[in-house]
């Protein structure tokens, strides 16, 4: 059964991020424009999560780049908060990479990794780091455009050096895990680049 929130109808689940579950939605006024709807429960017991959600919205509304997922609007009801995002129709890069044949890998890797670097450079130049880059947080449009998604643990670079251990285990830089050097923390930009190195290795 479809649920309505504002002018949008929410349908099937298409993903799950660090701060909420993502569903496919459609603009009920046009019946054509598809959107991604990130839903997060409003809970008094999870005081950190609403702050993470507010932060994600804050960061995304300040970014505008072809290789970064665009935010449309934010809606609320008594139970949930809904972030309406552009819908990227081909899904996660992970699902595409596992289907590549050996003779396709180098060509496809160059195509997508170059876009990742373009988006990440823009993000860093805009004053933010992502801190959870992984194949599952890179989305592909049907026309081959890569989009960086899920900014739930992103951070303002003015907060450098950073100390919080966050991200996904297989992609985290060693200094983020160990907290070394403990006195000076870590550089969020370098942590992102380490994650990109893991992504590149997995793609090839």
UniProtKB/TrEMBL annotation:
Biological classification of the source: Eukaryota, Cryptophyceae, Pyrenomonadales, Geminigeraceae, Guillardia
InterPro entries hit by this protein: Aur-like, Kinase-like_dom_sf, Prot_kinase_dom, Protein_kinase_ATP_BS, Ser/Thr_kinase_AS
Family: Belongs to the protein kinase superfamily.
Annotated ATP binding sites: 38, 136-137, 150
Keywords for the protein's UniProt record, in alphabetical order: ATP-binding, Kinase, Nucleotide-binding, Serine/threonine-protein kinase, Transferase
UniProt xrefs under Pfam families: Pkinase
PROSITE patterns: PROTEIN_KINASE_ATP (PS00107), PROTEIN_KINASE_DOM (PS50011), PROTEIN_KINASE_ST (PS00108)
Protein name: Protein kinase domain-containing protein
Active site: 132
Keyword Nucleotide-binding listed: yes
An MF annotation (GO) of this entry: protein serine/threonine kinase activity
Cross-link position per record: Glycyl lysine isopeptide (Lys-Gly) (interchain with G-Cter in SUMO2): 134
Domain Protein kinase: 8-204
Gene source species: Guillardia theta (strain CCMP2712) (Cryptophyte)
């Amino acid at each position: 059964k479809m649920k309505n929130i504002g002018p949008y109808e929410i349908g099937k689940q298409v993903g799950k991020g660090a701060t909420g579950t993502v569903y496919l939605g459609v603009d009920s006024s046009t019946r054509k424009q598809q959107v991604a709807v990130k839903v997060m429960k409003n809970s008094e017991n999870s005081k950190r999560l609403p702050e993470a959600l507010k932060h994600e919205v804050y960061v995304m509304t300040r970014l505008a780049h072809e290789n970064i997922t665009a935010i449309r609007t934010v809606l609320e009801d008594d139970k949930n908060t809904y972030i309406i995002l552009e819908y990227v129709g081909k899904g996660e890069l992970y699902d595409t990479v596992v289907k590549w044949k050996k003779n396709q890998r180098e060509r496809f890797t160059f195509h997508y990794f170059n876009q990742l670097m373009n988006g990440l450079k823009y993000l860093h130049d805009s004053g933010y780091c992502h801190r959870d880059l992984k194949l599952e947080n890179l989305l592909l449009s049907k026309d081959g455009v890569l989009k960086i998604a899920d900014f739930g643990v992103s951070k303002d670079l003015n907060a450098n050096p950073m100390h919080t251990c966050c991200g996904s285990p297989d992609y985290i830089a060693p200094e983020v895990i160990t907290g070394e050097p403990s006195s000076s923390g870590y550089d969020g930009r370098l942590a992102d680049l380490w994650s990109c190195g893991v992504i590149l290795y997995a793609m090839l």
